[in-house]
Amino acid sequence: MPDLTLTNTVPQSRRVKLLAILAVAAVALVIVGPLFLDRFALNVLTRSMIFAILAITVDLLWGYTGILTFGQAAFFGAGAYVTAMLLTHVGSNPALLALGLVLSIVVPMLIGGAVGWLTFYPGSSDFYATIISLVVPIVITQLIYSGGTWTGSSSGLVGYWGINLGLDGYFRLAGLSLVAIAVAALVFVRSDAGRILTAIRNNEMRCAYLGINTNRIKILLTAILGGVAGFAGYLYANASGVVAPENAGFIFGTELVVWTALGGRGTIVGPVVGAIGIGYLSAQLSGDLPFLWQLLIGTLFVVMIIFLPNGLAALATGFRERARAGTAPRLVAEAPARPHRESDAPLLDIRNLEKSYGSQKVLEDITLSVQPGELVSLVGPNGAGKTTLMRCMTDGAAASGGIVRINGESIAGMVPNQIVARGIGRKFQVASVFESLTVAECLRMARTTLDAPSIVKTSDVLGLPQTAIDILRLSGLDQMLGTSVSLLSHGQKQSLELVMVVSLEPELILLDEPTAGLTKTERTTIGEVLKTLTAECGIAAILVEHDLDFVRDISSRIVVLHQGRLVLDGTVEDVVNDDIVKKIYSGGGHE
Amino acid sequence: MTLILDMLTSAAILFIVATGLLTIFGVLKIINFAHGAWLTVGAYCAVATAHMGLNPWLALPLAFAAGAVLGLLTERFIVRPLYSRPLDAILATWGLGIVIGQLITLWFGRDVQFTANLIPGTVDLLGTTYSAYRLFALVAAIALGLGFSYLMEGTRLGLSARAVIMNETLARALGLDTAKIRTVTFMIGTGLAGLAGVLLTPLTSTDPTMGVAWLVGSFMLVMVAGQSFGALALACLLLGGAQVIVSTYVSPILGGITVAVLAAIILRISPKGFSRA
Amino acid sequence: MNDMSDVKTAKLALDNVTSGYGHVDVIKSLSLDIRRGEIFALMGKNGMGKTTLLKTILGLLPLKKGRILLDGKPTDNLGPKGLVDAHVAYAPQDQPLFQDLTIRDNLRIALRSDRDLNAGFDRVQGHFPFLTDRLGQKAGTLSGGEQKMLIIARSLMMQPDLLLIDEISEGLQPTVIARIADALKTECEANGTTILIVEQHLSFVLGIADRWAVLKLGVIDDSGDIAGDTQDRILEHLRI
What we know:
Subcellular location (chain B): Cell membrane
Number of helices of chain B: 11
Distance between the termini of chain B: 30 Å
Oligomer: heterotrimer
Structural class of chain A: alpha/beta
Largest interface: A-B, 37 and 39 residues
Family (chain B): Belongs to the binding-protein-dependent transport system permease family. LivHM subfamily.
Strand order of the largest sheet of chain B: 1-2
Radius of gyration of chain A: 28 Å
Structural class of chain B: mainly alpha
Helix content of chain A: 40-55%
Shape of chain A: elongated
Largest sheet of chain B: 2 strands, antiparallel
Strand content of chain B: under 5%
Number of domains of chain B: 1
Strand content of chain A: 5-15%
Number of helices of chain A: 23
CATH architecture of the largest domain in chain A: Orthogonal Bundle
Membrane topology (chain B): Multi-pass membrane protein
Helix content of chain B: over 70%
CATH class of the largest domain in chain A: Mainly Alpha
Number of strands of chain B: 2
Radius of gyration of chain B: 18 Å
Transmembrane segments (chain B): 12-34, 54-74, 86-108, 132-152, 181-200, 212-239, 246-269
GO molecular function (chain B): transmembrane transporter activity
C-alpha cells in the first residue's frame, strides 16, 4: 500500500497548538483585564462577552448549519427570566443559585427541543425555520408581559440577589465562560462530527440519502444551543441584576445576527469579535452620536451582506477557506459493517406502482422485481417516467398507488434516510456531493451511520469497504483525499459520489445517468466499476441511461419504459431486437 | 355588532398593511424586511404634510411616490444582487430598515408625532356608534383589493407580472423584460407600503420604530397567503378576526401573538398556506 | 450535402459553436446553417445536446466559443427579448404554457402590445379555430394535444420569420401530429417562415422537413436532404 500520509498531516497538530495558545492568551487577558480596565469598560465588556456567547450559538446555527435564526434571544431571555424569577420569588442562597443554573439551562433546552421538533420535519423548508425563529421570541416576550408580578411585566425584574462576585468577578466569570464555550465550539466544528453541520448546509438532501437523519441533528442542535443561550441568560441575570422583556425580543435576536454577520459567519471567532467589538464601540460612541452610530452599523451591515457575505473575518483570513487543503487521512479497508441479508424475498419488489400529479398519470401499473447481482438498465424516451420511478424507490411518500418492498418490507411512509438504512444507495444525475468539504470528509459523511464520527477530533484514518477503495484508486481520487471538492472536475465529482454511495455498503444502487457529461475513458471506467460491483460483489444496480451503447455493454437486463408504462422487460438481446422498441425510438410509439 | 365591525376593520387594516409586502413576495420571492421602514416613511409623509400645512389627503400620493422612488433605488442597488440569496435579502433589507429608521430619527427626532385624523368622529351604523375612520379603512381595503385585482387581471403589466410569478423561465424565454417587471413590482410594493403608512397614522402613534411592530404580523400573513391576494384577504379575515376575539375574551396581550402563532401552526400543517386552495 | 455552413445566405448560421452548463461542454464546435424559408429537422437521442443547442441560440445559455448569426449578423447579447424583436419565436419543451392563464392571455403574452392582437388571433384562427373559439378557457384544462397546438399558435402570434420548436410531437397521437405538421407547412409556404424543429419523431420529420441533421454527443454526426434513403440513415443513428 502506498504511503498516503506523507502529503500533509502537519496542519492538524499545528492547529491544535494554535488553538491552545489562543485559548491560554484569552484566559490570561480575561484574568488580568480588571487590573487595567475602568468600571465603565468592565461593565460594558462583561455584557458584551455574555452576548458573544449568544453570537456563537447563532453562528453554529446560521453560519455552519445554514438555519437563519432570530430566535436565540428567546432562549437567552428564558434562561435569564427563570433565574431572576427564582431569585426574586423563592429567595437567594447557594443552593437556589445552583438550582437556577440548572433550570436556566434545562428550561431553554426543553423549549428548544419543542421548537426544533415543530420546525424540522420531513419536507420542512429553511424559510419555515426562520419564520418560527420570529414567532418564538414574540411569544416569549408576550408571556413575560402577561406574567404580572411574576415576571414584572413591562418593567422587568430588578433587586434580587445574584452570585456575590463583584464587578471583577463577573468580568472574569463571563470571560472564562466565553473562552470555554468558544474553544468547545471550535473543537466541535473542526471534528469529524462537526463537519456534518457544514454538510447539512451544503446539501441536506445528500445527507438524507447517506442515511443521516438531518432533522434529528437539527432538533438536537436547537435544543443544545437553546441550553447554551439559557446559560448566557443565567450569567446575564446575575451580572446585570436586572432582566427586561427586551432581552427576549426578536429585535435583540436580529442584533445577534447583525454581529455574527459583521464578524464573519462560519468562523466562531469572527462573531465573538463582532459582538464584543460592536458592543464596546456602541457603548463608547453612542453617548456622543447615538443615531449616527446606529446608522453606520446599519449601512455597514447592508454593504457587508451584499458584497462580503462572509463578514470581516473573510478579509482577515483571505481565501483560506477556498484553498483549505484538509488533512489527508490514511485509507483502511474495513470488514463489512452491515449484516448479510437473510431474507428470501426479492431485494426489490415493485407491484402495480402508480404515480400521478393531479390528473396527469406519470407512472401506471409498474411491476418489477430485482435480485442481488443484477444490473438492470431502465431506458425510454424523455418523459417516460424513469427518474420518477427512481424517486418512488427511495421516498416512501412519492408513490400514489401500488407497493414497493425492499427485502419484503414495504417502504410506504418511510423517509429517504430510513430507506437508505435498509440498503438502498442512490446516485443522482447531477453529482450530489458537498462542495465545502474535502474528498475524505465527503467519504466520512457516507460512513456516518455505520461508523459514528468523533465529536472532538479529526481522525487520521478513514475506514472504507475494499470496493470503495478500489474505485477511489481507479479514479485517482485516492491521491486527492485532502482536496476540496469544489476543485474537482465534473467527472471526478461523479466518481466521488459513486464511491460515497458504495461506502454505504448498499445492497441495491440506483444510478441516474451516471455517464452524463463524462469523457469516453471516464464512461468506460464507470462501466467496469459497475460490472465488478454487480457480478463480483453481489450488489444489485438499477441504472437510468440514455447512452444505449453503454447500456448494451454492461446490463444483465433491460427494462423499457414508455409513457409511464413498462413495455418490455428482458435480456439485452430481447430488447435490442424488439420491434416495439425500434418504433418507440423512431418516435411516436404506440397508443 | 361592535365585535363584528372590530373583526372586519382589523382585518382590513392588516390587509392594507400587508399588500405591499405580498406584492413583492408574490412576484420576486423576496421578503422585504424593510417593509416596516416604508410604513414609517409613509407615516412621516403625513407628518411632513401636516407641518407644511397642506391638505392631509395629499399625504397619500406623496407617500406612494416617496415609497416608489426609494423602492426603485433599493431594488437596483440592494435587492438585485441578492435574488439568488433570499435569506441574505431578508438581512440586507432588515439592515436597510435600520438605516431608514435612523435617518428618520435624525430628521424628525425620536419623539412621538401626532397628525390630524383624516376622518374624525363616529358614525351610527345599524344602531351602533362606530369610529368613522375604521369604517373608512374597511372601504379603503376593499378599494385597494379591487384596484389591485384590476391591475393584475386587467393590464398588460399585471399579465406580465402573473407570467413571471407562474413561470419565470418561460416568461424570459418569450422575451419579457423580467428585470423591468421586477423593478416596477418592487416600486409598487414599496409605494403601497408608504400609502399604508399614511393610512395607519390616525390609528397608532407615529414614531421612528412604529413600522417594526407591523412588520412581523404582515410577514406572517403573507407567508400564509402565499402569492394570492384573495388568500391574503382570507388570511386577514381569519387571523385578524381570531386576534380580535382572543383580545376581547381572553387577554389583549395574548391577542397580540394570535396572528403569529396561528400562522406558524397553519404553515406547519400546510406548508403552502392558503395559496394551495 | 456537405456544406453545412453557408454563412452569408443563411437565415440562421452557427459557426463553431461551443456551449454547455458550468464547465461541462455539451455542444462542441458545432457548425450548421438554416436556409431562409426551409424546415430543418435536428434529430438525435436524448442527452445529445439538442435542447442545449436551442437554448444557446436563444441566449438562455452562454456561448462559450464561436458565433451565431441571424441574417448574417451576430446575435451576441440579443437575449430572448432582442430575438423576439428580431421576429424569432420559440416553442419550448419543458413547461411550455402558463397553465393557470387563459388561452387568450397565453396568446397575448407573446406580443409586446395589444395593438397586434387581432392580427395574431386571425393567424391562429386559420390553423386552429378551436383556440379562438375558447379564448376564456384556462390553458391547463386543455388536453395534451390541444396544449401543443396552443404552443404552436402562441409562437405564430408574433408573425415570426424564424421559428424554433423543441420536440413538439412528443407523446402525441398521429392525428394531432398531422394537424401540427399541416400548420407548420402552410406557415412555411404562405409566409416564407424559416422553421427549425428539434425532434425524435421520424415520420413527422420525414413528412415536413426539407433537410435534417443528427446530433450525437454535441457534434453533427450525419446530415442531408430529405430523400428516399433518409429513413434508414436516420434510424441507424437512433436505434438502440
